[in-house]
Each structure stands twice: as structure tokens, then as C-alpha cells.
Design a protein that fits this description.
Helix content is 43%, strand content 20%. The protein has 23 helices and 23 strands. It has an eleven-stranded mixed sheet, with helices on both faces. A five-stranded mixed sheet has the order 2-4-5-7-6. The protein has a five-stranded mixed sheet with strand order 16-8-9-18-17, with no helix packed on it. Helix 13 packs across helix 15 and helix 20 packs parallel to helix 21.
């Protein structure tokens, strides 16, 4: 069946005009601050998006122009040049050239009177950004054709200007039966409203006539309850029907891609088949519209990075034609959309090598990452494993856009890949952005809403169960070490009620494969809410995805769980400097505390010693675990810091032995080591350590904060 792209031309044009407007506004700002990296990256992405969608829809000339614009902006972003007047002139000229081409119905390569102009303009853009600005005047921008007499074959075709068409209003085709249901429900709601008004009027008259008999009021209350139940029922039904009106089948999105995939495969010289499943799964149209660009990026990646050439596939024993699959299905109140391929899979070693080359993380940290953690590097801005830049990939634009788009939609994306078996990008998003079931929680005197889809479970813990791992608080849930974040600390709120309580409520939340515990003051039950996005100046408030109004009129914030998890792992969430203030009883200033430091590397030992002594501690160094044990028998220390790998006795054995000694049964012990595995962390905590700090993430502030929490 031939792909009918005419259904989507209108959407493409509307979106392209929006991107052109964004580029125009952004370039004006950039002209005043040409070295603004953030704006450069934003403008480069806008050009990249125009290029990609134009390529898919067959607007080759626009794609070529956008490609050259993107290349020039990328060079500026990479610091190869600082944009000057000549650069802005050619960029604005390029913007002016696209609207007429957008209205030209002849879109295929080699056809249409504007083709030579597009070629010349592309050469001019490349020339200007190569700092070889041509002095010869280029041809004027093409203009949309108007009705005129037939031109002779030897005469050039003249065209006149035509302003860009206005952006079309958002529209949606709605089944007439759905509208009929809404009309009937709205009629019932009006009837119930009139009835409620009558009852209110009746009550008012009763008071005015002083007829306050008990029986009379009981009847009025019954009538009010019936009216309230009726309005609640009708409102609920209207809510459901409005949601159905907004829901469209995923095929509305999927049908964009077969022709686009064909063009991409041909350009890449590969044989690719596309499969689609679950097209009848329904999703909010707003989400559908926002998913176009992320899906296009993933499909380009599947063709360019995933699917091998036919020769390579045959050599591996695979069918010559690669397979790219789109699949959608509903799970509870979420819809899952998968983009998968049966290609080579993600080369974990190559991603690690590129990450080390770009210094994304310390080399030791990168080498110890699991495959799942490596896959998350792919979503970092600008990251790419491609050595060559092509029209479809190579600049790293794509996967970071996918993650940003999913975050905006309150969704998540995870990656599953295996060598020579292919890759799956699994995106989860809510059915609708309008209504969300949430868990209401209290922190201080404030109430917050946590989307129920992000909640794994709720538990109660004792304060003694809180440990420190890598300078951060953590708890162990079913043998799994899990970061702990206090909601009060995130928003700098006071603790509610009496601090000296035995149990604390913790909500285990999850984003993709990452989990953490969120400590709150109270759990206040579940509730459906209508979420609203925040406008200026609140739209950029961290860790918040929106707000809602409760039945009592209070406005509360909706927690953005993925951003909290990302920030916590990145060290952005800062706990109270003195957590011990939350503990019962006054903090008494004691004598100068002494710390036993077991470390066989002299340079590391001296570094830690200087940090500790600068903070006012007295430090005794032991060169290994055995020497530390001997010194502990001669003097009682207030705290012990130990490495793991040491001669004669390692840190695990030292910790276990000290815990058997009555004098050191309750003395805090901190492990500072390079051993990063969960098994080592678990072994350290089980041995009796109160904190586990990695040398790769060691900071003086982190160490001192941990010590202050443990001994004040």
C-alpha cells in the first residue's frame, strides 16, 4: 500500500513554521550574545529538527538548507568560530528562503524552478561559514508562483513574493457520537445545577421565615446529598467522555513513518522492513503530537546505528533485510511505546571509550559501569559514537532530545540491548496529561502530590536504619542499598510535629530502572488530580512538574520524580548541613575528637589527615588494618576511617574485629575506598560500617558532613 503523506503535509508545514519562528527569535538574541552556548545549541537543534522532518516529508531543498545552517551553528558551538555579521546575514537569508519553498508543492529532488537557487544558497552558507565570503551577489530568494501567462521555454520563470501562511489552529477530528454523549451529559449537569440552586434558595427562605424544625432540615440535607451525588456522577462521566474525545489511536503517529523509513534506508544503502503493532492503542492527542520528533530521532538511529548492511547481516546468519518494529500497548494508566530493531546492538565498549575520550566521568567510574548505566550515557547532550557527520546522525542530537521530550510528558525511556540481537527503546508515558492519580504526602506544613505511577511501595523505617553510602544517606530494602532523600531537605522545609518519633514514612519511587527512598512526614492517601503546568516565573522550579488545586481550595505542587532521582545521583540534592539537629536532645560541645585513619597509601592518608585537622580533629594514622587494631587497643578513638585493600588486615576484617570489641561496638566507622560494586558496599555495611565513601567521588565537604552527622 502506497504511503499517503498528504495527510501529514499540513502538520509538517505548521511545525516547520513554528521552528522557523523559534530560529528567528533565537538568532536575534544570539546576535547580541554570539558566544551564548545554550542559545547556540538550541538554534542548532531547531535547524536539525527542520532538516529531519523535511527529509522525511520529501522537502529535499529545505532539508539541504537546514543541514548547512546546522553545520555552521555546530561549528560555532564547537568553538571553531565566533558568529559575526556575515554569518547572521546568511542565516537570516536562509530563514527567508524556506517559507516560499514550504508552499511549493513540487518537493522532490531535481524538480521545480527553485532547485538551482537552493543549491547556490547551500554553497553560499558553506562558503560563509568557511570564512570565504563570496563578494558576488547571489540570486534572490525564490518566490511563490502566481497565476500568469505560460512562459516561453527559453524564458526564466518569474515569481512574486508570498508571505508565510498563518499557523493553523490546533484541530482534532471527533466522532459525532462522542459529541452527542457530551451534549447529553452537559444537559444533565445543567438540570442538577438548577436543582441545587433551588435547594439553596429554599434553605435561605427557611432561615428567613425562622422555620428551623429538625425534620425540615433533615429533608433538605437528603435533597442536597442527592443533588451532590447526581452532580458528582455527571461530572465524572463528562470527565471520562472529554478524555475519550482527546484520545486518538497511536496509528495517527505510526503512519507517519513507513515512507520516511524507506527513504532513510535507501539513503543509508540498507534494506529495512518496518513492522507496526498496537496501532489501535489510544493516547492523548497532546502526547501524540509531542512524540513525533522523539520517534523520528529513534528511527534514524535504528537505521544509521542499529541495522547492519545486508552483507554483514548475511555473514552473521541473519536475513539480509533488517527489521525495525513499532509497538504500543497499555499497562494500567500508562501507555508503552517501543522502537526496536534486530541490528548489531549497542557497542558498550565503544560507548565507554567515547565517554572516556569526552571525559564524561572519571575513567575508573566509566569502566565499572553496568551495561544499563552505560546506555544512560547515550542520553547526554551532544553525545554520539558516530565518527562521521551525515544528514541523519553524527552530532549527538537525538537521544538527549528524546529524554527531554519524555520528561516534559511525565514519561520515561529505558534501553535494552544485546550484541547482534538488537536494541529496544521503551518509552512509558501517561494516557493523558489532564488527570493523574497521585499519592498525597506532607513535608513540614506543606502537602505535595506524587504521581502514583512513580510509586513502587511505601514503608516505615527507624532512624537507626539510615546509613551513609558515598557521603549520602541510604537505606537497605530487601538486601538492596537504596539512596534516601528527605522531602523536607529538597524544599528546605521544617520537619512537621514531634521529631522524637520511632518510625518514619518512606516512599520508594522509581524512574526507568533507578529507585530511591523519599522520606516524608505523613502519608495522606490517594487522589485523582487535574494537573496544571506552571507559568513564569515558576515554570523552572526544580523538582516540580506542575500544580493542582485540592477540594479545600489549597494549591499544592506535583513532584517531578525523575528529576529528583537524576539530581540525587548527580549530587545536586543537598541535605541539611547538620542532620543531627533533627535528633532529640541538645548537642553538647565536647573535647577535641580523635580519629583513627587506616590507609596504606601515604598521599591519600596525608590528604585526609589535612582535611580532618583543618576541621579541628586530631588524627592518628595506621598503615594497615593490623596496625590500626593495635592502636585502637592503646587508645579509644571517637571515629575510625579505613580503606579496604591494605596489607596484613583489610578494612572489612578490621571493621568486623572492632565491632566485636565492647569499646568500639558503637563507635562510628567510615569506609573510604575505590571498591564501587554493590556487593562491596553491602559487605561493608554488613560488617558494621556506618558510611561507605568512594575515593573517586571524595570531597572534603562530603567527608566532613558525614562525620558531623555521625559524631556531631
Amino acid at each position: 500500500m502506497e504511503f499517503d503523506k498528504s495527510k501529514f503535509i499540513g502538520q509538517y508545514k505548521e511545525e516547520t513554521r513554528e521552528h522557523l519562528q523559534n530560529l528567528s527569535e533565537g538568532l536575534l538574541k544570539l546576535e547580541k550574545s554570539p558566544e551564548d552556548k545554550g542559545m547556540l545549541e538550541s538554534m542548532m537543534r531547531e535547524a536539525h529538527t527542520i532538516k529531519g522532518s523535511s527529509t522525511m516529508m520529501g522537502y529535499k531543498r529545505i532539508a539541504d538548507i537546514a543541514h548547512e545552517m546546522e553545520s555552521g551553528l555546530q561549528d560555532a558551538l564547537d568553538g571553531k568560530m565566533v558568529l559575526q555579521k556575515a554569518h547572521f546575514d546568511i542565516l537570516f537569508k536562509s530563514l527567508d528562503s524556506i517559507p516560499p519553498l514550504l508552499e511549493d508543492k513540487v518537493t522532490w529532488e531535481g524538480a521545480g524552478v527553485a532547485r538551482p537557487y537552493a543549491d547556490d544558497l547551500c554553497k553560499e552558507i558553506a562558503s560563509v561559514f568557511a570564512r570565504v565570503v563570496k563578494k558576488t551577489e547571489m540570486p534572490k530568494a525564490p518566490e511563490a508562483p502566481i497565476k500568469k501567462k505560460e512562459a516561453k521555454a527559453s524564458e526564466p520563470v518569474k515569481v512574486s513574493p508570498q508571505p508565510p501562511a498563518a499557523i493553523a489552529e490546533e484541530s482534532l477530528r471527533v466522532d459525532i457520537n462522542k459529541l452527542d454523549k457530551l451534549m447529553n451529559l452537559s444537559g444533565e449537569l445543567i438540570v442538577s445545577k438548577v436543582r441545587l440552586n433551588e435547594l439553596v434558595t429554599h434553605i435561605t427562605r427557611k432561615f428567613e421565615t425562622h422555620d428551623h424544625s429538625g425534620e425540615s432540615f433533615r429533608e433538605l440535607i437528603k435533597e442536597l446529598n442527592r443533588a451532590q451525588e447526581s452532580i458528582s456522577s455527571v461530572t465524572s462521566n463528562i470527565q471520562d467522555e472529554v478524555m475519550k474525545v482527546r484520545m486518538v489511536p497511536v496509528s495517527y503517529l505510526f503512519n507517519l513513518f513507513p515512507r520516511a523509513m524507506r527513504d532513510l534506508a535507501q539513503k543509508a544503502g540498507k534494506d529495512v522492513n518496518i513492522e507496526m503493532k498496537g496501532e489501535n492503542t489510544h493516547l492523548d492527542k497532546t502526547i501524540i503530537d509531542e512524540m513525533r520528533d522523539p520517534m523520528m530521532h529513534l528511527l534514524r538511529n535504528a537505521v544509521d546505528h542499529g541495522i547492519e548492511s545486508s552483507q554483514d547481516r548475511i555473514r552473521k546468519g541473519k536475513p539480509a533485510a533488517g527489521r525495525v518494529s513499532l509497538n504500543a500497548y497499555q499497562v494500567g494508566s500508562q501507555v508503552v511505546v517501543e522502537v526496536s530493531d534486530d541490528g548489531a546492538g549497542i557497542d558498550v565498549a565503544k560507548v565507554k571509550a567515547r565517554a572516556i575520550e569526552r571525559k564524561v566521568l572519571p575513567k575508573e567510574k566509566i569502566e565499572s559501569l553496568s551495561d544499563e548505566e552505560v546506555f544512560q550515557i547515550l542520553f547526554m547532550p551532544g553525545f554520539s559514537t558516530k565518527d562521521e557527520v551525515t544528514e541523519t546522525s553524527g552530532r549527538g542530537v537525538g537521544l538527549d532530545v528524546v529524554k527531554e521530550s519524555l520528561t516534559k510528558l511525565k514519561g520515561t525511556v529505558e534501553v535494552i540491548s544485546a550484541s547482534d540481537s538488537g536494541t529496544i527503546f521503551r518509552m512509558k508515558m501517561p494516557l493523558t496529561l489532564a488527570i493523574t492519580e497521585c499519592l498525597l504526602v506532607a513535608a513540614g506544613s506543606d502537602t505535595f502530590a506524587i504521581p502514583i505511577d512513580a510509586v513502587v511501595e511505601t514503608i516505615r523505617i527507624e532512624l537507626g536504619q539510615v546509613k551513609t553510602v558515598e557521603t549520602r544517606e541510604a537505606i537497605t530494602v530487601r538486601n538492596q542499598i537504596m539512596p534516601l532523600v528527605r522531602l523536607n531537605d529538597i524544599f528546605s522545609l521544617p520537619t512537621k510535629g514531634i521529631v522524637e518519633r520511632k518510625y518514619y514514612s518512606v516512599i520508594i519511587v522509581q524512574a526507568v530502572e533507578k529507585r530511591l527512598g523519599l522520606l516524608v512526614d505523613e502519608l495522606n492517601g490517594r487522589q485523582d488530580i487535574v494537573g496544571k503546568s506552571l507559568s513564569e516565573p515558576l515554570k523552572n522550579v526544580k523538582y516540580v512538574s506542575g500544580a493542582t488545586i485540592l477540594g479545600d481550595g489549597r494549591v499544592i505542587l506535583i513532584i517531578d520524580v525523575p528529576s529528583i532521582i537524576d539530581s540525587f545521583e548527580g549530587g545536586v540534592v543537598i541535605r541539611r548541613q547538620d542532620v543531627s539537629k533533627a535528633m532529640p536532645g541538645p548537642i553538647v560541645k565536647k573535647r577535641r575528637k580523635t580519629i583513627l585513619l587506616a590507609e596504606d597509601a601515604i598521599s591519600t592518608a596525608m590528604l585526609e589527615k589535612n582535611v580532618l585537622e583543618s576541621a579541628g580533629f586530631s588524627v592518628v594514622i595506621a598503615r594497615d588494618g593490623q596496625e590500626a587494631l593495635e592502636k585502637s587497643a592503646q587508645e579509644k578513638f571517637d571515629l575510625v576511617i579505613t580503606d579496604i585493600l591494605m596489607p596484613r588486615m583489610d578494612g572489612f576484617e578490621l571493621t568486623i574485629t572492632l565491632r566485636k570489641d565492647k569499646l568500639y561496638k558503637n563507635i562510628p566507622i567510615i569506609i573510604v575506598t575505590t571498591r564501587e560494586s554493590d556487593a562491596d558496599k553491602r559487605r561493608g555495611l554488613e560488617a558494621g560500617a556506618d558510611a561507605y565513601i568512594l575515593k573517586s567521588e571524595f570531597t572534603s565537604e562530603g567527608l566532613l558532613n558525614t562525620i558531623e552527622r555521625l559524631i556531631g
